[in-house]
Amino acid sequence: MPLGSANLQLVVREPYSPYGKYALGKLVVGEKAVISAQSKMDNASLYLDGPHRTVSVRLGDTVSFAVSDEPLTVLGLRGRKR
Q1: SS3 track for 20-82
Q2: 73 Cβ contact list (under 8 Å, min separation 6)
Q3: Between vectors from CA 55 to CA 58 and to CA 61, what angle results, nearest 5°?
Q4: pLDDT for 38
Q5: What is the pLDDT of residues 29-70, one digit of tens each?
């Protein structure tokens, strides 16, 4: 996505389905939308921005995703030529 985008992108890193196919691999959430998912696993983890930040998720927990009110600060792009 472009750096100026106000959308949120979700990517399923290790998709699993007991039926062999999964429906969600990548999703773009609009500026005003909220996406919720309920865990069907006893013990799982949600990884945010790679392995640097994890959140434990238990059976029945609901996790919601939405665009933050705070803008993203990207370091190291000043003066960079394209």
Answers
A1: CCCCCCEEEECCCCEEEEECCCCEEEEEECHHHEEEEEECCCEEEEECCCCCCCCCCCCCCCC
A2: none
A3: 30
A4: 92
A5: 888 888 898 998 899 888 877 778 899 999 999 999 888 888
